Amino acid sequence: MSRIRFRASQFGRPREPSPSYRYAARRPKKFLSASTPTFPPLLNIQEGAYPFNSQNMVKRKLGALEKVEADLPNLQHKIRRDPKSYVEDFRAQHYQYESHREIFMAAPSSATDTGIISLRELLDFIAHVADCYPDITKDFGHQLIDMLTQHHLLLEPELREKIVGSLVLLRKKELLDSATLLQTLFPILISTPSKTLRALIFQKILMDLRSSNAKTTNHKLNRTMQTVLFNLVTSDRTSSKGLWAIKLTRELWKRQIWADAKAVEVMKEASLAENEKVIVGGVRFFLGGDKEREEMEEESSDEETIDIGRVKHQVGINKKTKKKARAIEKAKATVQRRERKKNQPHPLNFSALHLLHDPQGFAESLFSKHLQSPKSKLNLEQKLMVLQLVTRLVGLHKLHILHLYSYFQKYLTPRQPSVTSFLASLAQASHDLVPPDDLEPLVLKIANEFVSEASASEVATAGLNAIREICARQPLAMNETLLQDLVMYRKSKDKGVVMAARGLLSLYRDLNPEMLRRRDRGKDASIGLQHGEKKEKRFGAQEAGGIEGLELLEKWKEEERKRKRAEKGLPSDAEDDEEDEEDENNWDAWNVEDDEDSDDSGGWIDVQSDVEIDVSDSDDEGSRPAKKAKQAGEDETTESKPETKLPSIATTRILTPADLAKLQELRQEAAVNALVPGFKRRGQTTEPRYKDDALTAAEIEGLAALSAGKATREERIAHAKEGKTDRSEHKSVTAKRKEKKEEQGKSTTNKEKARKKNFLMTLGKAKSKGKRSLVETRAVLRAHQDRQKRGGRKGNK
Amino acid sequence: MGASQKRKKEKQKDFQKPKLKVGKAKAKPDNFTDTSFKSKSIVLNQQSLKLTAPSTTTQFTHHLSLLTSKSDSQRRDSLAHLTTSITSRPVSSPLPQPVSLLLPQLLPLLLDVNTSVRSNLLKLLRALPESDVADHVSQLLPYIRAGMTHLAPDIRLSSIEVLGWLVEVAGEEVVSCAGGWVKTLNCFLSVLGWHSEVSSKWTSASSAGSSNSTNRPSFGKAGAKGRPQVKVLSVLADFLDAGIGTPDPSSDVDSADGEGSGGASFPIRQFRSQMIPQTAAPYVYLNLFGKPRDEEGEMYETREDRWRVFEGRFLGAVERGVAEARAEGGEVGRASAGVSRVLVEARA
């Protein structure tokens, strides 16, 4: 305790940095007060602190850090910097924590924050520095777990949250493994009545799962967690606790952390539960989970765009600080990450509906459990959702459910609430392997109930649209007389009905024109019939499979060949051997990166601009210009030729990666072209719909919005505004430029400043100007002249 | 110009004084809110209008409840009041509230920020009947230990004083209750900075208290000339004496008495051990309802047990510390003599 002893220690061990020495350097005043008894004014304790030393009571000067009596954050900071020297302090605090814990465990419900330091702060402190002293704190995690699991009902909220936070912190510091953490938190999540705690724990669990799957997929952890969730859902089917499993799975599915069959299995079990909320949660997942995931993906990909050039430029101009340097590093890293992501192949993700193990069994049990059984407690909306799922499964996997179609029978009346959803579901449920005998009565019923002169136009529209959708999937469900009858509705006065009937007409022109009356068939279809191309598809007939867009590739190759030959000056369609030349190219083509040919378009997609606009399928074709008709005829003839021969390219040669890349490009181009209005040619009205997409009630309602007089003013305004991009108010170009300048925080010109100057401020000058003496005026004028010569106030040298 | 004049006038309008007229009510301000209401009856829930002054018991309870007050002086005054009412009560009359009800209110105050509150608390504790305190040692000890390792040196010191009082009052219970021996000794070592590694590495530094930044002020208040450490050492000596010192002659006589009488009469020897014990919780050692205990939290009921544990875990550290303290000389050295005397006796 004396100076001499301290020095002895210092000289005795010159090499080792004594903590006391360092300490003294950091806090000189305290060091003095501790070790030199020769300065009495510094060295006294607080008045009245100790009854037994009341001899010298001069007020002690306090160091800045001493004033705070119990400064855990300060200690924490010091421990972080030098854990070895502060081990004793930490040990003391650990004992402190132990005793507080003892007090707490004796009476968990009583208030814990007594005095200056509460258990909560101690927990926080120890959790933050636990990684520095793993041997002292080896039980800490388990003590926390005990505290939480045993007393989470009684704990005061703040302490509870602190314990959860500390556990997560320990997990971050790798002092606790994920499995233990999740096994602790999950039961509490399910059982606790506190909403805030649930929210907190849910968030923490999610975060932990995300972080442990961040670098590589942690299969083991995922499997255990999925098993836990699966058991939660299946153990008690009537309880609503399964909701947590659903929430967690859905969130992780959305973020593509869980994308395997097991997660889907959890959801499948959830949708077969007995609690309505759980059922709806499960069904919703199947109906919307994939879309959600896609949206999430898009969202993350188009975050903020970083212009690296601009950032660099700014750094060149502005003051160079560490922060700016870091910002540029970060921007570079982001750009790099994005580049890498762009080059990565799209992750092979299957939709939840495809990952189901036994879709037939699932659909059957869903149908019998929730829809058919009289015991089902679902309301109409929920039932509709289940029905939607069932029918999607049926349509997607081409399943057969025995009583599904007869189930629809009683719901197909215009008075049924949300009947359009039923119609959409029915259309979804039909596929080409459904026996026409099952569907025909339904189609007939729809026609009878919905489509009549007496019924409202919306009703008729919906009925016609539904029939069209069903028949698009199973054309055999329609008989000739009914079709001819329905097609007559294109003469209706209502536009929605007209459009729907035309849709049906063009569908059958494409699929089976023989069923139409001769004059309804249209030109293309009649020609097709004469050539014998358009034949009725038999029940169950399958088309030979092929590679999508292969004919595009073939066409492109042909053109390329012609072009090359034209360059060489050879006749374009000579059939001489160029195999050897092609062989040379072929080996290059196996490597996509080297191949310039496929990259020449550089991400640009050609969009045809000069195609004629041709939308209508109306039958007044005769009034058209003859030239156009002739052109179309030529198209037909040229097109009909290649169709006769099989696409040979896939059968004659092996497609190289370069070929596949080109194929992809062509496909994309075609898809974009298809979106451009006017490109649609006759006979291509029914573009192949993506099979995975659901059919919605809105599509069945169709163009009912077009029905005259039904739209309110607001709706019409909204409809008119739909296509237009929103532009701000009309302004002059100068005003816009000025605004832009102001937005960017740029300064104004002197002229502008002068114009904007407050009127009152200019008054004084104006007044004094009139009162100047001759001498003053002269001086001013001279000064002005001088300035002009010099070129401004600062001079223009 | 015209517009600005007009605006000026409008602004001034707000600050013009309304004219008061005789015989008319004052005009209500614009933002006046009518807060009057009508009610059929008025019920006064709580009103304590009494002619007599509150009795001493009610005052006692009232002050007991005031112990959780936010204000320091309030807590201090209430403690003082409780102390006086306990000490001034007629002899042989019971406490206004039993100790078991008092302690939960009092114990958190061991960690109170205010020094005078803590010193008043000690006074109050001293005023409590000794026999009652002995039953609640296991309740007291965690708080004392929490105080001993507190970050604030003042609190450490005052809780050492409380421990001194407790050892004095119920030494046997202190050392033999669950966790009372090992945990408390650990706390002592940490207060003194005698924990093995550090003291071996930085011998003198640790005794100067500089190994632990926050420990230092407690020892290092040179104005006290090592008094805090003296105090700690003397309490440690008492504690060790209670734990591993030679058995008290008085209790010896007592047991010898029992044995003697047992031996004189019929074969029933040591009949005391056959009888139901007279302590408050005789079967605590069975630990029927608590959690399983580890080595630190275990009860060490006999002197031999305690010595064994002490020898295994603490002896080296304590001896080293005592040697250092003696080398320091002065009051600290003298105080350390007490500890070493106990050690010597225990070894013998």
From TrEMBL, chain A:
Residues 573-600, 609-620 have a biased composition (Acidic residues). The keyword Transport applies. It comes from the Eukaryota. Residues 531-540, 711-732, 740-752 have a biased composition (Basic and acidic residues). Keywords: Nucleus, Protein transport, Ribosome biogenesis, Transport. Residues 125-493 form the SDA1 N-terminal domain. InterPro entries: ARM-type_fold, Sda1, SDA1_C, SDA1_MD, SDA1_N. Belongs to the SDA1 family. This is Protein SDA1. It comes from Aspergillus lucknowensis.
UniProtKB/TrEMBL annotation, chain B:
Residues 1-10 have a biased composition (Basic residues). The keyword Nucleus applies. Residues 1-33, 204-225 are annotated as: Disordered. Residues 132-240 form the Pre-rRNA-processing protein Ipi1 N-terminal domain. InterPro entries: ARM-like, ARM-type_fold, Ipi1_N. Residues 204-218 have a biased composition (Low complexity). It is found in: Nucleus. The keyword Ligase does not apply. Keywords: Nucleus, Ribosome biogenesis, rRNA processing. Its main location: nucleus. Gene3D superfamilies: Leucine-rich Repeat Variant. Component of the RIX1 complex, composed of IPI1, RIX1/IPI2 and IPI3 in a 1:2:2 stoichiometry. The complex interacts (via RIX1) with MDN1 (via its hexameric AAA ATPase ring) and the pre-60S ribosome particles. Component of the RIX1 complex required for processing of ITS2 sequences from 35S pre-rRNA. Belongs to the IPI1/TEX10 family. This is Pre-rRNA-processing protein. It comes from Aspergillus lucknowensis.
